[in-house]
Amino acid sequence: MRRYSLAQIEALAAIAKLGSFQAAARHMNVTQPTVSLRVRELEEALGTKLFERDGRAAKLNAEGTVALHYTDEVLKLLDELETRLRTGDPLQGTLRVGSSETIAIAVLPKIITLLGERYPRLKVELTVSNSFVLLDGLAHNRLDLAILADPGHLANIHVEPLALAPLAWMGCRSVALPDQFADPTSLSQSTILCMPEPSPLYEMMANWWEREGGPALRVSTCNSLAMLARLVASGVGVGVLPTCILRNEIQRGSVVSYRQETPFRSLQICAAYRNAHTSEGLEVLVSIARRVMLDSRYFERLE
């Protein structure tokens, strides 16, 4: 069990800053023997001396310099904790953001950059995963906010629709389908790639295939949307993907977004966070995310 205390850590920081035990005692409004006792207890707990003393002056030795680095981090975290709990705003301190791969690939770097410009002292912890993991993180308070597709209605979770992400069958131009038209007959001659079940992409593709009267569906799966996009762009197979994640390849003409008789429903991209976390800061983040998506021209406005 750890044998050091916050009072000992504060004494170390005060002496290092002010240069003497006496000055630290005045700053902390305690007696000098009290400060000396706290430092001695800390040194005993850590098993090493922390200061070199020259008369009344005190200077950190090598071990003390290392200890100060860690105690500074502890004090900063405690300051963040106090601010976070006092204000109730997750943008005060560390913001835990979850993102679907679609958003991470397409626009997340721009969102985080603009957020950092607005809140330069903010630290961000990113989790990129599928919707099931992100929703579980929100429900168990491991995430402050998630940007994901089609989250549905959830108890105690506020859902803010942001934009629509169009979907299409896509493939490499070098192995393009005849007339750049996707139907089960032509698709069945290619390797079909998709995210594994359960996933919105697999469900939408399978439902479309059944409605179109396709033959038995044979699918090769990959659990990484980024890797799936690379496989499609490389001509390994065709797949149903959000067009935003291969926008550069579509612009260059190396990837084809196929026409379909029955288009897919676009994914609804939403921001989700616990009702208890509602704050002006989160509303700013939601506004930034919506603006970045719509400015990219690869997402559509909600009707």
TrEMBL record:
The keyword Transcription applies. PROSITE patterns: HTH_LYSR (PS50931). It comes from the Bacteria. Coiled coil: none annotated. Pfam families: HTH_1, LysR_substrate. Residues 4-61 form the HTH lysR-type domain. Keywords: DNA-binding, Transcription, Transcription regulation. CDD domains: PBP2_LTTR_substrate. GO terms for molecular function: DNA-binding transcription factor activity; transcription cis-regulatory region binding. The keyword DNA-binding applies. Belongs to the LysR transcriptional regulatory family. PANTHER family: HTH-TYPE TRANSCRIPTIONAL REGULATOR, TRANSCRIPTIONAL REGULATORY PROTEIN. This is HTH-type transcriptional regulator YofA. It comes from Achromobacter veterisilvae. The lineage of its organism: Bacteria, Pseudomonadati, Pseudomonadota, Betaproteobacteria, Burkholderiales. The gene is yofA_4.
